[in-house]
Amino acid sequence: MLSEVRNMMECVHNKVLHREKTKLNAFLEEKICDLETEKRELVGVFGRTGAGKSSLINAVIGEKDLLPSGSVSACTTVIIKVEANKQNQKYEAEIEFITKEELEKELWFLFTFILNDEDYKDEDDDDYNDAVEMLSALYGEEWKNKRSVEHLINDKHFREIPEFIVSKKKPLTCESAKELSAKLVKYTRSSKDRDAKEVKRWFWPLVKCVTVRVPNNDLLQNVTLVDLPGNGDRNKGRDKMWKGVVQSCSTVWIVTDINRAASEKEPWEILKSASSLMGNGGQCQHIHFICTKSDVIEDSDDSSVAGVRAAIFKRNMQAKEEVRREFRKLKGVHTHFSGDCFKVFTVSSKEFLKEKSLGPDETEVPKLQEFLQDLNDFHSETLKYVSGAYGILSLIQGAGCGDVAGVKANVCTELEENLEREISKVSETMKKSYRTFKMCIMEGVEKSNSSWESVLKSFLNPRRETGSAFHRKLKCIVANNGVYKPKKGKQQNLNERLASKLMESIDEEFRKTFPNESKCEPFNGAISSFSLGTGTLVEKYKKYKGVQLQLEFLRTEEEKIKTKVHKTIREQKKEIYSSLRLQSRKSCKSAKGKKEDLGI
């Protein structure tokens, strides 16, 4: 059906192009071109090394050899987007690199603040080990003897990837998923991957993002799965992209091993640290906690097939309840999400493919596939394209019917009155929200001004450290724009800590005004309630075919515009929420300049 309607609109477009250049024809040409707009849903996939992210994605989309998996010591180090190839039958990838300028800054940081600092040279220090791994991956042992940024940035080191030198994306095209996977390893996996012995040079430190395109895949038509590493990145370009992707995800999958689902800290830390980016600062509607390797059962009293299955089901139900109980404890996350958006799945990618102890449905992989299919159907190109085409054809036919004794003028008068009334309703709702936000922000600013000094002291020097330990921390915070990662424990962000009072004051009202849930709408539904009353007017002027047809066009345009307004609100609310943190950071800097030395 879609192809037939597209062919029809292409013929109409060609006729319009060859007609006289009138305002109507120019308008029709713009509307026909606008029909091709595509909307994609992003599903972000988080999880620690060895949790089974790659295997899960492969199983869900039915491509067992697509994303490399295996060695526990290896991990995905870059953002990988997996989407449909709608152009041909090949398996393709597009590799986007950081710039040479970004690499130069990163090398300078590593040599200045980590590798040449005696305080960092510790086997237990993650920053030091990460720096050594990155440089060894790119340069082998050479960097140890020539610790010069100027030398290491030389083009001779990147002859294998000329695209990096000229800041272009590198394309890869293969006949099979397995072939493409093998080619991607050195761009996406850490150099700890013991299964990739043939790889001599690793380029993952230079990669910002990889987009993989899969042919003939119904689940990816309007959905992109994004394999996301950890909690951002030291490289500013990669970190900015990471935050942008997280903010754009409508769904997040947090993947962890079922035997450590409730107790393991990393997946919960990811959820807590990214909740504001996904929630008020993003557009996430669904959080799926996916417990993998659900077929693995230990010490079953009954070794029969039925006994093993029963033990698996019992353990899986226990795991789900434990995870739900843990989620209920996360008060900070509930500021951004309701319990309704949280679901738990117990999945076995291995059993889904081999079916030894469990049937396909019992692995719960089909449930995730069904969810992706629903996302696809919700953003079906067919419905939107056909609806838009119908409106345009109605306008063309109605415009040719001519006017009848000034009827169109009467209709226009009524439409203008309806428009003025409806805009007034929306405006009043927005003004009310503005007044509420203003009060919340004033309260937050007052709390921030009275607490910033104690927050700063407790962050910079909670244990009253002196000497090298304190200066090392201070140096790291300055170099990393307020971010500090201790040898043990989670990453800390000074800017977020300083902004916390302001954000706490506004979070609840912000979520009510700009909800992410599909059943709720911004500004208490004021945009969706907006109506020009075209249905009533169609009934009133049913004797006049031309008027009816043009009103039908207005009806489809009204729905289209409301959809665009909702999209604009969704995008701009992210910017507004992010700007609050930035403004808080600037205000605190200003306040700091006016105060005397804190005496830390």
Question: Can you tell me about this structure?
Answer:
Among the domains are: 40-62 and 232-379, Rossmann fold, CATH 3.40.50; 404-597, no CATH class. The chain has 22 helices and 11 strands. The protein has helices at 2-17, 23-34, 53-61, 100-115, 126-139, 142-145, 149-152, 162-165, 177-188, 236-248, 265-278, 305-328, 331-334, 349-354, 365-378, 381-399, 407-460, 468-479, 494-513, 526-529, 534-540, 545-594, and strands at 41-47, 79-85, 91-97, 170-174, 207-215, 223-227, 249-257, 286-292, 342-346, 483-484, 492-493. It has a 9-stranded mixed β-sheet with strand order 4-3-5-2-6-1-7-8-9, sandwiched between helices. Helix 11 links the parallel strand 7 and strand 8 (286-292).
